[in-house]
Amino acid sequence: MLLEVDRGAEDAHEVVHKLRRYADGFRLLPSDAGERIKRLARAGGSGHVDHEQRLWRRYSPATGREGTPPVAFVFADTTDAKGANTVKALEEGGRRYWAPRRYEVYQRGLAARDYGQVVPVVFTALEQLQEHGADAAVWRRLGRTGEQKLAAALDNPGGESLFRRQVAQADAEEEQQRAADREARRPQCKRCGSKFTDQRWRETTESGGAWKAGDLSVCGTCRADDIAREEAATATARQPAPVQPELEGDAARAADQVALRAAGEHRGPLQCVHQAHPPAARDVGSPVADNKPRAPAQRQPTARSTATTGHGLRVQAFQFRF
Fold this sequence. Notes:
Order of helices and strands: EHHEHHEEEHEHHHHHEEE
Structural class: alpha/beta
Low-confidence stretches: 266-289
Radius of gyration: 54 Å
């Protein structure tokens, strides 16, 4: 901690100027700093370079909290009015050095503040130190009201620790809101009324998967039922027709006789399809003076019957009318 004892020899504006010099000194880089660090310091200001890269870390230990080493002003041999005037000048003219900044995050409404580049400024009166000691609640910090112990005055309860808690809470609330919005958009089965599972929802919405998802308006359970019915119908269609057992011996001959008898129930002569065509009949009443060969008259069958023998032979019989 850097200690400044003000005995009233400097006015308030000189004290503010001294604070500015402290802040500028904390931003200095060591001479052996890399080019990248130098470019960041020139382009983005102090917030883009960590304190570990600064010159003050070469001669001062880490503070264990956000910000630079603190600066303490002790007012001695001065009136209360002059001390209050100096504090007011520090609060107004030195705000850019001691005041925390808003975190540059997308979350809105965060009460936490960024103390990363702050120069903590505390002050007290020499009389209070002599009466109560430096460990007593005699210190005040710029931007706060009331007197505190030194450790409490230098602490940043509204800084990084609060920021992490608020960000975690904001992320959890946003996640809950996203989950609620997603559940509100979850499709509902048109058949049974149940909500789609995540897997079924992906099947019906993912690119390239909707064509094999079937009916997009039904849930996974109803889709499984549809698939089961389709598979059962396909299996039934693929079953072979029942084959009649082949008869042997007397049973086969009896079946052949029954088939032939059924085929011969038609009146008139019968001809089987495996026999030769009947001989052409001459028309008795037609003249034959020219003795030219004539094509046999084509007769059309007037009846046909079909039967199957016991050996699986299919017999067809035709009846012709002369």
